Amino acid sequence: MRQVIAGLFQSLDGVVQAPGGPQEDESGGFAFGGWGVPHFDEVLIGFMGELFQGPFDLLLGRRTYEIFAGHWPKIENDPFADALNTAAKYVLTSSTEPLAWNNSHRLADFDALATLKETEGPRLIVQGSSTIYPQLLSRRLVDRLFLITMPVVLGSGKRALPGAAPTACKLVDHRVSESGVIIAVYEPKGDVATGSFAMEG
C-alpha cells in the first residue's frame, strides 16, 4: 500500500494561498503572492530535501499541476527538477483535457485515488493543491500531514482545510528554525476527543 504524504505552507492566520509567487493565485484580489519565499532557510530547505529523498510520485490538483507543468520541465541541470520531471504525476481532475507533462496520469475522483493507494509503489507526495485536502482527510487517505507555518499574518486569502471532517492528529516530528518557521508533522489518530474544564459541584 502506498503512503500519502500531504503538506501545506500556511501563515500564522492559516492562509495557504499563493505562497510560491506573485502570479500563483491572484483570485479574490490576493496581493501577497510569494509570501512564503523569504522564509525558506536552512532548516526548511533541509526538511524539504529529506521529504523528497528516495522514490516518490506526485499527487496534485489540476491548478497546481498546470503551475508545475509550466515551470519544472523548463528547468535544466537541477537535481530536484530532474526528480519532479521523472516522477509519475497523478492529477485529481474531472477535466478530460490532455496532461502534457511527462509521465502524467489522470485520476477522475477520490475513489480512483483510493484504488491507487492500495497498489504497490512509491510514496505519493501532495504539493500545493489545497482544495483537495478536505476530501483527502475526510476519506482518511492521508498517512502524514506536515504544516509549515511562516511568521507572517496575511489577513485574507484562502485558508487551510475548509470543510475537512473532524480528525484528531498525533505529532510525530517538529522543528523550529531561527527565522521563526515552525514545521510540524502529524499522523491521523482517529476521532476528536472532547472534555470540559468546568468544575463539578
From TrEMBL:
Instruction: Please report the stretch or stretches of sequence annotated as the Bacterial bifunctional deaminase-reductase C-terminal domain.
Output: 3-182
What the entry lists under InterPro entries is as follows: DHFR-like_dom_sf, RibDG_C, Riboflavin_Biosynth_HTPR
User: Which SUPFAM superfamilies does this UniProt record tie to the protein?
Assistant: Dihydrofolate reductase-like (SSF53597)
Q: Which GO terms describe its biological process?
A: riboflavin biosynthetic process
Name the domain of life: Bacteria
Recorded hits in Gene3D superfamilies, A to Z, give: Dihydrofolate Reductase, subunit A (3.40.430.10)
- Cited Pfam families: RibD_C
Give a GO molecular function annotation for the protein.
5-amino-6-(5-phosphoribosylamino)uracil reductase activity
Q: What is this protein called?
A: Dihydrofolate reductase
What organism is the protein native to? Jiella endophytica
